[in-house]
Specification:
The strands form 6 sheets. A 7-stranded parallel beta sheet has the order 1-5-7-8-9-10-11. Strands 16-17-18-19-20 form a 5-stranded parallel beta sheet. A two-stranded antiparallel sheet has the order 2-3. By secondary structure, the protein is α/β, with parallel strands linked by helices. The protein has 28 helices and 20 strands. α8 packs parallel to α9, α16 crosses α23 and α27 crosses α28. The structure holds glutamine (GLN) and zinc ion (ZN). The site of zinc ion has 6 residues, from loops.
């Protein structure tokens, strides 16, 4: 008996909106405040104006309900820590002295005070600050930010819906505070946290909130029965409160799975679900569970984290099904629009034929409104928009950008053998030993050298037209000469050219591949005041010309030692870009891999004996649900092997990943079949070396012995000790000596000293081995 919602007009809303402003005003104001150029009052005024402008824009596009509290000076998870009073002991003095400065201290640290750790928000490229909790954590409600932002919206005449990180997700995202046992489970604090949420909810109700949204994206990941019980308990308790607004529990980024029946049964008034991408499975699951009769369903049919226009016909069909499954159905984005740029109409340099396929935050808001109108008033009321949408979609699928017959034919003819090196590792290793003649414990670096202000200035001048291409190339060559000469003097065995020509390891290649497009204003928050402009994988990928051969060959011409070619791997190219939504990710990865495979061949032809294909994103791209892991790893490792599989046996293929915990993908790392892998290890005392050994990893590895995340210079002794530890797990014939990661964020003085010590350490340990 599912009541039809024909009577209730469908409302439109979004879960959150980009915070920075059309011209990144927020970034500028915050950074100005940090430098003392902007007063706290001026910063607050800028923030208030940006919120006001956002709400007005949303309301003017026809949205019925606007989110509040989604704004942040840095991060919404940090805001939640402040809201529940979870201030780590080391930040308390700063917070008590000044709330705003203390807030930034939690985010960024201060002299002698470490900030909160930062990590990725689910499988997006947004980073949040990890709450630190322990058995002694005392929560206390501090709803000031949420209340004032709601009041602002209400005063401006909007229907505001406060959006909070839900209590279960908040605890699941937390980690044990320093000094607390590593096996402490923050979720055990649920009973202490719920009264704080109860207080916040009551205050929001009093301030005029009819609905409050509680975001629980952690529920789209695999959860234990105990965790699902905690969900049931949390929402039973919050639902039982008498003085509260109506509760809308939101989950996004994937299907809810086993958490769906738990939430469906909970005494809350509404659910907001994602119906895009892999989360489209929510539709069948919801039907199977008998729907949520009598409740409000906020249907996320417009993809909030990718840049493509909606398929209105498909969304309307989803919505039509949903109408029978809930008390009322409202239309929304799948998640906050924080993850997409603001507006396509400011992209003057993009082909207009292509812009019509794109929807950023503003366009997505209009899509939500259009769908809600179609539901309320019938499709006739938006007939023109629907037919324009059909035409835009048709132009995309018929476009020569989307379908390049040559690329498709090549991709379709890939064989199993293409993705395999011609000889097994042991035979390749022998051929490479012959060709390269490297010492035991060879030294190398990960690729980039310090990106100096002069380099950045040169790039800015090139963009502004004050420096011509030839002048820019001369500066790059001068930089390469310096980097090569330093490495020779320092005694490094396998050199790099230093990547001075690369602003970003993905963007550099994206700009040189056909089918990729770059925006000029498509800024998206990565963390705090850091914004990035991810390129868009818009069409079939091909490589019109070599991308790295000139710089690598130039560097090689300066030295007799081998210079490594440096490429960004296919998985990382996808992970840090907006991806196509009209074909499987594996197909896009394969196209990128084939383009890179040609680059490998050209580097080889130019005499490059060592080629590194970086895949720092291999692990972070793992799907949110474990069940989807094997399929992902299958296409991801195939793409890597397709990139490198054509290399001759005496070409040494390196790969690099920058993280210390990879237990869950060690088999995939093995499957890459790279001859040498470099990994982060310095901070964890070579833990990875032991994990590799435990797995029986048969090839060479360079666990980092120099932590590049700080300006600290490791001593020769320290690096030598790490090498000795590494040797307990990896035999000398297969152990490399290198830093944890690239050096582009470091300064020259500490880089010089650290690499000299690293070489000295390698020599010291070599001498020990030969005596
Ligand atoms: N080759 C790149 C560099 O050294 C690798 C960067 C990375 O792993 N993120 O900068
Ligand atoms: Zn790295």
């Amino acid at each position: 008996m599912t009541p039809k919602s024909a009577a209730a007009a469908t409302r439109s809303t979004v879960h959150g909106y980009p915070r920075q402003g059309p011209d990144r005003e927020l970034k500028k104001a915050i950074e100005g405040y940090w430098k003392g150029r902007v007063t706290a009052d001026a910063l607050r005024e800028t923030a208030a104006r940006l919120r006001r402008d956002n709400w007005r824009e949303l309301a003017e596009s026809g949205l019925d309900e606007v989110p509040t509290g989604d704004f942040s000076y840095y991060d919404h998870v940090l805001d939640t820590s402040v809201m529940v009073g979870a201030i780590p002991a080391r930040h308390r003095a700063a917070v008590e002295a000044d709330a705003l400065d203390g807030y930034f201290t939690m985010a960024r640290g201060a002299q002698d005070v470490a900030p909160l750790e930062m990590t990725k928000w689910f499988d997006t490229n947004y980073h949040y600050l990890v709450p630190e909790l322990g058995p002694d954590t005392v929560f206390a409600a501090n709803p000031a930010k949420q209340l004032s932002e709601l009041r602002e919206a209400v005063a401006l005449g909007h229907t505001g819906r406060p959006v909070l990180v839900g209590p279960v997700t908040y605890l699941l995202l937390a980690k044990p505070a320093p000094g607390v046992a590593a096996d402490f489970e923050p979720l055990t604090l649920l009973d202490r946290l719920l009264p704080v949420y109860a207080e916040v909810l009551a205050d929001l109700r009093a301030a005029g909130a009819e609905w409050v949204q509680l975001d629980e994206p952690a529920l789209v990941q695999d959860r234990t029965p105990a965790e699902l019980n905690a969900v049931a308990r949390a929402y039973r308790d919050l639902g039982a409160l008498t003085d509260r607004p109506q509760l809308l529990v939101a989950a996004y980024f994937d299907r809810l799975g086993e958490a769906l029946p738990v939430l469906a049964k909970a005494p809350v008034e509404g659910l907001a679900l994602d119906f895009t991408g892999p989360a489209a499975a929510n539709l069948g699951d919801l039907a199977a569970a008998g729907g949520i009769p009598g409740k409000r369903l906020v249907a996320g049919v417009v993809d909030g984290r990718n840049v493509w226009i909606n398929d209105f016909a498909a969304s309307l069909s989803t919505l039509a099904t949903l109408l029978g499954l809930a008390g009322r159905v409202d239309v929304s984005t799948s998640c906050s629009l924080l993850h997409v740029p603001l507006d396509t109409t400011v992209e003057r340099d993009l082909d207009p034929g292509l812009i019509r396929w794109l929807a950023f935050a503003r366009q997505k808001t209009e899509e939500v409104v259009t769908l809600a109108r179609a539901l309320t008033g019938g499709t006739d009321t938006v007939a023109a928009r629907l037919s324009a949408n059909r035409a835009d979609l048709a132009s995309r699928s018929a476009s020569a950008i989307t379908r390049d017959p040559a690329v498709r034919a090549r991709s379709a003819s890939v064989t199993e053998a293409d993705a395999r090196r011609g000889l097994p590792y042991t035979e390749r290793a022998a051929a490479q030993r012959q060709r390269l003649g490297l010492p035991l414990l060879p030294t190398t670096t990960i690729g980039s050298f310090p990106q100096t202000t002069e380099l950045r200035t040169a790039r800015a001048e090139l963009r502004a037209g004050r420096l011509d291409a030839a002048g820019y190339d001369r500066r790059i060559e001068a930089e390469i000469r310096e980097v090569i000469s330093f490495q020779e003097k320092a005694g490094i065995d396998v050199l790099v050219h230093g990547e001075p020509e690369r602003n970003d390891m993905v963007q550099y290649f994206a700009e040189r591949l056909t089918g990729y497009v770059a925006t000029s204003h498509g800024w998206v928050q990565s963390y705090g005041t850091r914004y990035v402009r991810p390129p868009i994988l818009a069409g079939d990928i091909s490589r019109p010309a070599p991308m790295t051969v000139a710089t690598t060959s130039y560097a090689q011409s300066l030295t007799d030692r081998p210079v490594k070619g440096m490429l960004t791997g296919p998985v990382t190219m996808l992970a840090w870009s907006f991806v196509r939504d009209d074909q499987p990710l594996g197909e896009t990865a394969r196209q990128v891999a084939l383009a890179l495979r040609d680059e490998v061949a050209d580097l080889e032809a130019a005499g490059t004996a060592v080629i590194q294909v970086d895949e720092p994103a291999l692990r972070e791209t793992l799907p949110l649900r474990a069940a989807d892991g094997p399929a992902y790893l299958a296409w991801a490792t195939e793409a890597f092997r397709l990139t490198t599989g054509g290399a001759g046996p005496d070409t040494q293929i390196h790969t690099h990943m920058c993280y210390a915990e990879f237990g869950d993908i060690v088999q995939a790392i093995d499957d890459l079949d790279a001859d040498v892998i470099s990994l982060e290890a310095a901070r964890s005392h070579m833990q990875v070396a032991h994990e590799l050994a435990g797995h029986g990893y048969p090839r060479a590895a360079g666990p980092g012995v120099y932590d590049i995340h700080s300006p600290r210079v490791p001593s020769t002794q320290e690096a030598a000790d790490l090498l000795r530890t590494g040797l307990k797990a990896i035999p000398a014939e297969r152990l490399w000596v290198n830093p944890d990661c690239g050096l582009k964020t470091r300064g020259w003085p500490e880089t010089r000293a650290s690499l000299e010590n690293l070489v000295a350490a390698a020599r010291m340990v070599r001498a020990e081995l030969s005596s």
